[in-house]
Write a structure and sequence with these properties.
Elements (H helix, E strand, L loop, with lengths): L15 H14 L17 E6 L5 H12 L3 E6 L11 H9 L5 E6 L4 H6 L5 E7 L5 H15 L6 E5 L6 H12 L3 E5 L15 E3 L2 H7 L2 E4 L15 H8 L3 H4 L7 E3 L12 H4 L6 H20 L8
Parallel strand pairs: 1-2, 1-3, 3-4, 5-6, 5-8, 6-7, 8-9
């Protein structure tokens, strides 16, 4: 087995050796994306079901492209128009899908723990594409890959995660992965958007954006997750932007390069201004490209197939 676990449910407890193996494999597979015909037969005969119960653009397309680049057979599922709308349980849905002889399931669901639940229902390999507020492991892996490309290493680097930490599965996976790889992590946002006791995850906390900017080598800027939070956690979008928005004027106060990241979708003029998101310091589009490479790596490593001779 290429990794220590046959599923990717999150980065909690995933050893540094596994993370390094995924990032190294993604770096190798990324070269495929620049070929005239960006396709290899590595996963020919493997069937992957993309089981998305939440809306998605980047993650879903990224997984679909990764599967197609590896020549896997891909089936896309959406809950709208499915038997779920007729009252079928998730357990029955996935067991019926597996009865059609599939190999892997990529799952996105609004309820935390759903990917783990599926491991108890079916024998297929499960890959978490985001579960509630819990984790989004492939997003954190692509973030780490992009930073490692920029710096050559993650060890000792300072990454500040800015914004809605409480409701963000991206923050959850990034904190776990970066700390495991030896980076320092700081979270910053309004007190109402940072969970109490988060320091136990090995991260620093500040509620002052200027302190975060003075400390950081890179910013991972999160959007406000209005769909997952109750009202009244901050006065208004305008006041949030005034206190925590990443603007060119604010960055100019600090005489250093700060790398800018964002997992998307971007709410321009809220958590980040356009002239920062589109600046030379931004590696946001590199994150998107690396998302395909990372998901290719995860699919290959969890398939148990040796891709060395295929790429």
């Amino acid at each position: 087995m290429a990794l220590s676990n046959r599923h990717l449910l999150g980065l909690d407890g995933v050893p540094a050796e596994d993370i390094s193996k995924i990032l190294d494999t993604a770096e190798s597979l990324k070269t495929i994306l620049s070929r005239p015909i960006p396709k290899v037969p590595t996963l020919r005969g493997i069937t992957v079901v993309n089981l998305f119960f939440e809306n998605s653009t980047r993650t879903r397309i990224s997984f679909e492209l990764a599967e197609k680049r590896l020549s896997a057979d891909t089936v896309n599922f959406t809950s709208s128009g499915s038997s779920v709308k007729k009252g079928e349980t998730l357990k029955d849905t996935v067991r019926n899908i597996e009865a059609m002889k599939i190999d892997m399931v990529v799952i996105r669901h609004a309820s935390a723990g759903t990917p783990y639940f599926l491991t108890k229902c079916i024998n297929s390999v499960i890959i978490n594409a985001g579960d509630g507020r819990h984790e989004h492991p492939t997003q954190a892996l692509l973030d780490m890959m992009t930073l490692r490309e920029k710096w050559g290493t993650l060890k000792g680097k300072k990454v500040a995660i800015i914004g809605d930490i409480r409701h963000s599965r991206v923050a959850g996976s990034n904190m776990r992965g970066l700390v495991t790889m030896g980076a320092e992590v700081l979270v910053c946002g309004p007190r109402t958007l940072i969970p109490p006791g988060i320091e136990e995850m090995g991260v620093h906390v500040t509620y002052n954006l200027d302190e975060a900017l003075a400390w950081a080598d890179a910013l991972n800027v999160l959007r406000i997750q209005l769909e997952r939070q109750e009202k009244g956690l901050f006065p208004s979008i305008r006041e949030y932007h005034a206190e925590y928005g990443i603007t060119r004027e604010r960055l100019k106060r600090f005489d250093k390069e700060i790398v800018i990241m964002h997992p998307g979708p971007i709410n321009r003029g809220v958590e980040i201004d356009s002239d920062v998101a589109d600046s030379d310091a931004s590696i946001i589009l590199e994150q998107v490209t690396n998302g395909v490479a990372v998901r290719m790596a995860v699919l290959v490593l969890l398939s148990g197939i040796d891709a060395a001779h295929e790429s």
